[in-house]
């Protein structure tokens, strides 16, 4: 069964729909406000189908948005090795469903507390509330981070340690603007550049060399 709206958005949509009905009956002139909020939530929590073609040795984007940065770093918190980190900024107008970038098994899920800087700021990667999932793949460990922003205050992660996941699978979302990062092996051949627009579960961002 296809899901056109993320289930996490239904409470918001139902709430603003109810407020719209109440306003239409009792506060007609104010009804436009909850009506607009209802349509915004329907738009924000949309969950389109994505089509994958050839995914052999490929890593797809875990989120819709714009590539902010691509850098080689020494990740010592969870991976303990040098990796390539790709940061993707999601505006409130992007689809916010997060998707699995590569086939693998979920090793761990780490929830980290913090503050709520704007997601496009460089410090947000280390200071904001965030959730990391680490995947064991045929090419070693791959990590994805969901990072909150100034408006985004809640991360939804639907996977748990031990889950087998497949490229393009939906695994969560971040509510109302955010950043998603992916940490890949150095052997990955990056196929995107800063400024590129990508689509989660569809845009190929890297190819893994044997």
From TrEMBL:
Subcellular localization is given as: Cell membrane
The cofactors it requires, by name, are: pyruvate
For this protein, the Enzyme Commission number is 4.1.1.65
Q: Which residues form the active site?
A: 178 (schiff-base intermediate with substrate)
Kindly name one Pfam family recorded for this protein: PS_Dcarbxylase
Give the Gene Ontology MF terms in alphabetical order: phosphatidylserine decarboxylase activity
- Principal place of residence: membrane
Q: Which InterPro entries match?
A: PS_Dcarbxylase (IPR003817), PSD-A (IPR033175)
Instruction: Give the transmembrane region(s).
Output: 12-45
Cofactor: binding details: Binds 1 pyruvoyl group covalently per subunit.
* Superkingdom, natural source: Bacteria
* Post-translational note: Is synthesized initially as an inactive proenzyme. Formation of the active enzyme involves a self-maturation process in which the active site pyruvoyl group is generated from an internal serine residue via an autocatalytic post-translational modification. Two non-identical subunits are generated from the proenzyme in this reaction, and the pyruvate is formed at the N-terminus of the alpha chain, which is derived from the carboxyl end of the proenzyme.
Which of UniProt's keywords are assigned here? Answer: Cell membrane, Decarboxylase, Lipid biosynthesis, Lipid metabolism, Lyase, Membrane, Phospholipid biosynthesis, Phospholipid metabolism, Pyruvate, Transmembrane, Transmembrane helix, Zymogen
Q: List the catalysed reactions.
A: a 1,2-diacyl-sn-glycero-3-phospho-L-serine + H(+) = a 1,2-diacyl-sn-glycero-3-phosphoethanolamine + CO2
Known pathway: Phospholipid metabolism; phosphatidylethanolamine biosynthesis; phosphatidylethanolamine from CDP-diacylglycerol: step 2/2
| Record site: Cleavage (non-hydrolytic) | 177-178
Q: What broad class of enzyme is this?
A: lyase
Record flagged with keyword Membrane? yes
Q: Name one GO biological process term.
A: phosphatidylethanolamine biosynthetic process
| Cellular component terms per the entry's GO annotation | plasma membrane
Note the topology in the membrane.
Peripheral membrane protein
Positions carrying Pyruvic acid (Ser) are 178
Q: Would you identify the family this protein belongs to, as annotated? A: Belongs to the phosphatidylserine decarboxylase family. PSD-A subfamily.
Q: What assembly does the database describe for this protein? A: Heterodimer of a large membrane-associated beta subunit and a small pyruvoyl-containing alpha subunit.
Q: What does this protein do?
A: Catalyzes the formation of phosphatidylethanolamine (PtdEtn) from phosphatidylserine (PtdSer).
Q: What is this protein called?
A: Phosphatidylserine decarboxylase proenzyme
Please name the source species: Candidatus Syntrophocurvum alkaliphilum
Encoding gene, per UniProt annotation: psd
